[in-house]
Amino acid sequence: MTKMLGAGEPPTVLLLIEAEVLCEPEARTQEAVDLDRPLRGCFVTGTDTEVGKTVITAGLLHALARQGLRVAGYKPVAAGAVWQAAASGPGGHWHNDDVEALLAASNIALTHSEVCPCLLEEACAPHLAARLEGGRIEPAVLIAGAHRLMRRCDALVVEGVGGFCVPLVETDVPNADDAAQDAAASPATDTGWGADDLAVALDLPVILVVGLRLGCINHALLTAEAVTARGLRLAGWVANRIEPTMPHAQLNIDTLSRALQQRHDAPLLGVVSHHAPATPARVADELRSDAVIDALGLQD
Ligand SMILES: Nc1ncnc2c1ncn2[C@@H]1O[C@H](COP(=O)(O)OP(=O)(O)OP(=O)(O)O)[C@@H](O)[C@H]1O
Ligand SMILES: [Mg+2]
What we know:
Layout: H1 13-17, E1 21-22, H2 25-29, E2 41-46, H3 53-66, E3 71-74, E4 77-79, E5 82-85, E6 92-95, H4 97-105, H5 112-115, E7 118-120, H6 126-132, E8 136-137, H7 139-150, E9 155-159, E10 167-170, H8 176-181, E11 191-194, H9 195-202, E12 206-211, H10 216-229, E13 234-240, H11 249-264, E14 268-272, H12 280-285, H13 289-295
Parallel strand pairs: 1-8, 2-9, 2-12, 3-9, 4-7, 12-13, 13-14
Antiparallel strand pairs: 5-6, 10-11
The chain binds adenosine-5'-triphosphate (ATP) and magnesium ion (MG).
Adenosine-5'-triphosphate (ATP) binds at residues 46, 49-55, 98, 162, 240-242, 272, 274-275, 278.
């Protein structure tokens, strides 16, 4: 079922009303936005899932806010939500860690559904989570949500979903009942629209988070190729020490620094240490704020 963050009761209604479209109802019904107005900010992608995109996105928001900018975090699609009943009385809300982190790191007042217009219950690949919930993700909602936030801030920091090429929409959604019985057994479907297409639609410069672990050089170079092959600008990258004891971490950073600078003109925007916890302020301290502002063209 689709999550209505901040709603007063568990969200069973949307599924009944709108089985074809998984998104926040209020996000669909708000006034039209000017999609031609360019967005400012960045699209944060990563070498994989769980490499620190949320941690770095929150750090970037914090760093930009320190520079006096009004900033908003945006997580177009999040998969994995837990219902939290209200402490007293009826109702509650659907909780997702990424949404909470970006909401907290933004310095303008935002609602949960503004930060994330499409929250799915299952913590799995989004197109599969959507299939399991009997519908499909609506690209127009994700794109409009970004433009709607942009009207209220100076910079939008969008956290991607999974890795750069993760599918979001299938061209052929199987029967919801079949999918609910056994998603794995459903017929293979062509994947029609993904996180890379979302990045193209938003047309923001991309920041690549490299989770430093064995294999990250290959993943980083492949992701950088995919970003530039889609006509997007790789504005820079962040080395994130997700594994505190990774051997030869600095040598990996050196190799990637040279390759990404030479091949994509993409500078290293910071090396983030392993922190416990990795708060936005600590991450921001290790980001090169001036270089970030410069790379994103946010000087004026
Ligand atoms: N620099 C760091 N120091 C310590 N822990 C970190 C660091 N970066 C990330 N982590 C931890 O690693 C885990 C994954 O980070 P995060 O949630 O930011 O990844 P993600 O790429 O956003 O994942 P997803 O694809 O699920 O959105 C989290 O538990 C986070 O706290
Ligand atoms: Mg995340």
